[in-house]
Amino acid sequence: MSAGAAGQQQQRRRQGSAALRALAALGRATRHLLAAIGHFSRYALLTLMHMLRGPFYLRELGAQLYAIGYLSLPVVGLTALFTGGALALQIYAGGVRFNAEAVVPSIVAIGMVRELGPVMAGLMVAARVASSIAAEIGTMKVTEQLDALVTLSTDPMKYLTVPRVAAATLAVPVLVGVGDAIGIFGGYMVGITRLGFSEVAYLRNTVDFLEFWDVASGLVKGAAFGFIVALTGCYCGMQSGRGAQGVGRATKTAVVASAVMILAANYLLTELFFSA
Amino acid sequence: MIELQNVHKAFGRNQVLKGIDIEVARGESLVVIGGSGTGKSVLIKCILGLVAPDAGRITVDGHDALTAERTAFLARFGMLFQGGALFDSLPVWQNVAFRLLQGRGKRPRDAARDTAIGKLRRVGLKPEVADLMPAELSGGMQKRVGLARAIADDPEIIFFDEPTAGLDPIMSGVINALIREIVDEMGATAITITHDMRSVREIAHKVAMLHGGVIRWHGPVDRIETSGDPYLDQFIHGRADGPIESVR
Ligand SMILES: Nc1ncnc2c1ncn2[C@@H]1O[C@H](COP(=O)(O)OP(=O)(O)OP(=O)(O)O)[C@@H](O)[C@H]1O
Ligand SMILES: [Mg+2]
Fold it and tell me: What's the domain range around B40?
């Protein structure tokens, strides 16, 4: 065998082992991901079970409804307002191309209540709430407050997780409803001030074409997103590593994971509700 | 009675406990001493079932720490954590009265608040402190609030993880006397972790020294000076040279 052929063979072997290594890394990553999904699903089931059986901490639930629901109103309202306005401009720009400007009000309304209202509210709540829940519970873990809860005969699942998940599941649909209304109002403002719609025509168009299920489906999505956000925040907080770095990582993971899960769940729910 | 048999615990490759055997009788005050990082805090967390040992058996009056009905098991305990571990979302009095405000033995808020203020006074804190948030307190005050929380429900068994660390000498004396009083007058069983030799002498009936993952020495407090154990001697006199390495 010539020296050149031997070199080639060796190189090929090296490439082969690099490919194997990459494959192994991929396998490992997949295994970790699957394990995490398994853990998370188990945690979700546990949470649901704890929701059915007391003791219930109503004072905590109230505090969380305030923190997650009420305090999220400004940011959800503002994003909805701007989104509704931009939506009206875009639909108008599109509609003009085939003389269909008149659809602006109804498309803004439908787009808002079915899709953008829940998704924007979900994402804003993910940014605001998943992060703060994960940071709070993570810090509690790092400073032994979770251990202290347990020694005081209080189950952290019941005292921390259940009130947060229940509050988010109840509050986000309300936020979606408010966001829908404000978003439609944003479209309305742009419609009458910038696009030359008359007030009456815009409102009539909005109301006439909107169906009950359009709105209801968006609210159901909101409940699902609220559940996802709070659950992810609690899970990441409880899994937090030690020290400030551990809490930082838990917070980041909570936001990223809940945002991705919201978008995935949004697709699945849309498919479920509206596929022909 | 608290009984540990051959308890092992490792975190990854870090073997912390390597076969702990010890018994603590009812009404006894045991003080655990040992170098920083030798696993004293891990030891009491194992007894509470907060950390699951890798091997060995822990029983409290015959009930296994891991399999006993948790609420009833934990209801007998009070615990002061090394870092205080106060709930920073709750004001001081609700921290102290936490157990009184939930669960089976739930009491009216006014009564719970009165109890909390009484316990705060016992650890040398004024009633005004009751409505502050934990973050507004100094480190030593937080420690004492943690102590008040540990004794709030008059538990039968109390663990104190470094109760006097960070306190001035006068306050340390008050706390030592309080712990001794709880044991002597209320018949509680106490395990105290401390680095403070004065606390050892004032609190302990018995002393156990943890070193190298095992109980290196265990005996009555009046024998610590004459134990003849080079490790214990070095430790209680705080000498830099001896069998215990100063870099660990
Ligand atoms: N949750 C944990 N995860 C990983 N390692 C841990 C954990 N808890 C404790 N350890 C390790 O166990 C060892 C003993 O810790 P422990 O807190 O019991 O020490 P200690 O004797 O209480 O020390 P100190 O007197 O400084 O409080 C340390 O090396 C620590 O890093
Ligand atoms: Mg310690």
Answer: 1-76+188-248
